Amino acid sequence: MKKLIYISLLTLSLTGLTTSCDLESPSKSALDASVIFSTPSLAEAAVMSIHQSFSETNSYRGRFLPFYGINSDVEWINGMDLSKMPDGGKYDLASYNTKANNSQMNTDNNAYAKFYEGIERANQAIAGLNTYGNISSNAELRQLLGEALTLRAVIYLDLVKAWGDVPARFEPITSETMYLGRSDRDVIYKQLLSDLQTAEDYVAWPNATSVTRSTERVNKAFVKGLRARIALYAGGYSQRADGIRLSNDPELDRTAMYTLARKECLDIINQGCNKLGAFKDNFTRLCKDIVTAGEESIWEIPFSDGRGRVLYTFGVQHNAADQYTKQAQGGINGPLPHLFYDYDIDDVRRDITCVPYEWSKELVDGKSKQELRSLKKWCFGKLRYEWMDRMVTSTNDDGINWQYMRLADIYLMAAEAINELEGPSAAAAYLKPILDRALPAAKVTAYMNKATASKDAFFNAIVDQRALEFAGESLRKADLIRWNLLKTKLDEAKTKMAQLARREGAYADLPEKLYYQTDKKDGETLMIYGLNHGDTDEIGKSMGYESNTTWISTEKLTDDQINTLYIQNPDENQYWPIWQTFIDKSNGTLTND
Prior knowledge:
Blueprint: H1 33-36, H2 40-48, H3 52-55, H4 60-67, E1 75-77, H5 90-93, H6 111-132, H7 139-163, H8 185-200, H9 220-234, E2 238-240, E3 243-245, H10 254-271, H11 279-287, E4 297-301, H12 310-314, E5 333-335, H13 339-342, H14 348-353, E6 354-355, E7 357-359, E8 370-372, E9 379-380, E10 402-406, H15 407-422, H16 424-436, H17 441-451, H18 455-470, H19 476-482, H20 486-502, E11 513-518, E12 526-529, H21 537-542, E13 547-550, H22 559-563, H23 580-584
Antiparallel strand pairs: 1-5, 2-3, 4-10, 6-9, 7-8, 11-12, 11-13
């Protein structure tokens, strides 16, 4: 079983930031930095305390993961309604309509504050280990320094993804650095790339040491993969003060960044420490709390059993305390209605990613059953209470880790970078393994023949496959931004949903109704006809299923619902503003431009 216990041995003075009520520090410090950071067990506790800032109520757990990235061409908050907006600020966060006084975020203890709290803990650990850690001779302390550098890079990357240009703090806070203005994100990107190059030499490959046997601890594959991801962001497009453009910094030249990403990804693949298994197996392992390194999962944000709202937000919805869980939740975020129909009918990822049912509120002998949801409220199916080996008993937390990076991402980043630098023939070998586990061999061959016809065709295949592979994993928004395709793809998604509602274009061969009944053998599984291209109402009526319902119509998926995908121009609102409470307390150093 997984789950690390995090404690803090450092008393942190975070002027202007709120420390957590969950954080337990000694009432009187009996240790100084020279002792803490020269003693592996104490230094480990200090580095692991960085994770505390990930799991606190309004940090990654309850504000960042549920909202960042859930506004792409494949993901949204289920049930958004223009007539109900704003809904406690939640819908504004996911519709490119966010204001600095957002009611979900404009508090002293929200994700922005907790990210900087985690950064300060990392800064103190990095400074202490560099000063007292005997890094050159002590492998344990060297690993910990690499971890601290990497965890800081994770937080800073997510700060930049969400808020754009933010204050750059890479040293512990002093009275002179208490108030800082925004820094150009290129300065931050370059620091992170340098830090991770250092960290690569400090941490071990997966399973090379006792520490790196767990996906909850930083390993060399993750450091290299994170460096590749940052390189692609740094070398890509983003909204800046003068518009959407590439970086002007020659060190972040697009070709140089693709070259760096190619190297790091190929290092991971060629090392062979991780492997691609079956698509479903990756997610069942995640739900079963299996954190043994070496499979597809490369690194996960660890949540204890009583923390984290991953299934709560992204799981298939359960409406009652039933045979699988004591938590009635899930289904908050889901795939856009067209996504299921955009998969090839034989793609194994389709039925795992997109689920049209929920678990009933009514129980029979304490058990619920699957019931049809609305066309506009599909569930993500990669995370399911029913795949767990333990019962969730918390009201709001499920304890499932957030999978931050998996090997499929490494293959697709490699394919993208190699196509850009060398062309599709060289890149094909890194796209094909992703398709091999998703589609029958004949369809893989046909797809690859089309994808490798030109550099542009291969790039478009990467764009499509990253959507189909990572839907529900909150990678898509940042991908669209770096490709300068954000509004283009959101508009395509609106068009697709409008065509689906009218059964036009690519969706013209779908029936109007679904035909369904509960499987009489197990009493809980929903058997459905009418979801596949080519299904017909005529055949559906003849199947003898107990129920049918109009599934696709403009009443089931209205134009108002479709238009909630974005309210303001997404290309002019790629980032959240810094929240007003931090602007007000910045001594005039912070503004929202």
